UniProtKB/TrEMBL annotation:
Similarity comment text for this entry: Belongs to the YIP1 family.
GO cellular component: membrane; trans-Golgi network
Cell location: Membrane
Its membrane topology: Multi-pass membrane protein
Swiss-Prot/TrEMBL keywords: Membrane, Transmembrane, Transmembrane helix
Name listed for the protein in its UniProt record: Yip1 domain family member 7
Species the sequence originates in: Otus sunia (Oriental scops-owl)
Gene Ontology terms describing biological process: endoplasmic reticulum to Golgi vesicle-mediated transport; vesicle fusion with Golgi apparatus
Length: 248
């Protein structure tokens, strides 16, 4: 036991320290580098042991071309048009078309009326079916069926009469917007019965209103001056079918 204690005491009372070793190692390496300049792998090892001070900029990111393109793309979102305009829904044009239909004497803007806008027509068709439903008439299928057949017939007729021609979407848009006065007639059927002299006169007035507005828009959009009455006649036949649904 005494030998072990003596060994234990000698072990812990040694003057050997790691700091002394590091100082000796550093001093020897520096003295060697002063006598013999380092070359090759020796220079590389010295760089690893004695790294130079960091000369970069802390927390200063560098921008690569990909990063700059990403930032420019993110800034480009402000220049993009609204989502409704990308979907073809322009409330300003919808309001102008509605005012044009409500005022048959107002000149129509051909550039706006030639757009394929089906938002207003869908709303007016739903409104017509809803008001007929309030009057106790479930005619949604008749409304959409007659609208589709009428659009196809008017498209064929207008392509025969006009030189530039017209698209299906433009015909459906104009006929759908001009269905707005018929919604007024079906709303009146909710309040009072249209099966009488007053109802007949009101239905004839609404038919003339719808056909006059539709023919005015078609002549301005397709440059068909002097042919408004020829266009108004088939339009009156189409809107007459909707009037029959509303009255009877």
């Amino acid at each position: 036991m005494s030998d072990f204690e003596q060994f234990h005491f000698d072990f812990y009372q040694s003057n050997y320290t790691i700091d002394d070793q590091e100082e000796n190692l550093c001093g020897s390496i520096k003295s060697q580098t002063e006598e013999n300049p380092p070359t090759g792998a020796v220079a590389l090892s010295q760089k690893l042991l004695f790294p130079q001070g960091y000369t970069g900029q802390i927390l200063q990111p560098t921008y690569s071309p990909d990063t700059l393109s990403h930032l420019s793309y993110a800034d480009g979102f402000d220049e993009e048009p609204p989502l409704l305009e990308e979907l073809g829904i322009n409330f300003e044009h919808i309001w102008q078309k509605t005012l044009t239909v409500l005022n048959p004497m107002k000149p129509a803007d051909g550039s706006i009326m030639n757009e394929t806008d089906l938002t207003g027509p869908m709303v007016f068709c739903l409104a017509l079916g809803a008001t007929l439903l309030l009057a106790g008439k479930v005619h949604f299928g008749y409304v959409y069926g007659m609208s589709a057949i009428g659009c196809l017939a008017m498209h064929a007729l207008l392509n025969l009469m006009s030189i530039p021609g017209v698209s299906h979407g433009c015909v459906a848009s104009v006929l759908g917007y001009c269905l707005l006065p018929m919604v007024i007639l079906s709303s009146s059927a909710v309040i009072f019965s249209l099966q009488g002299t007053l109802g007949t006169l009101l239905a004839l007035f609404i038919i003339g209103w719808c056909s006059l507005s539709a023919s005015k828009i078609f002549t301005s959009a397709l440059a068909m001056e002097g042919q408004q009455l020829l266009i108004a006649y088939p339009c009156a036949l189409l809107y007459g079918l909707f009037a029959l649904l509303t009255v009877f």
